[in-house]
Amino acid sequence: MNCGIYHTAAQTQTSWQIESGTYGTASGAQQWLGLVQDHTPDDSEGREAHRYVGGGDRNVDIFLDQGTVYTNSVPYFMQTGKLLAAALGTVATTGSPNYLHTISESGCIPSFTLEEASEANATQNMIRTYAGCMVDTLEISAEEKAPVTTTVGLVAQSNTFTSGTKTTVTADTVKPYMWSHTRLMISGGAFGTSDYEKFSTVMSWTWGLENNLTPPNYCDGSENIGLPVPGDRNYNFEFTMNSTAKTGADIYSTLFKGGSEANLDLYLERTSGSDYFQIAMSGCKTLDADVPLPHEGGPVEMVTVMQPTSCTILVRDSTEEYPFESV
Question: Where are the domains of the chain?
Answer without folding.
Answer: 9-46+64-317
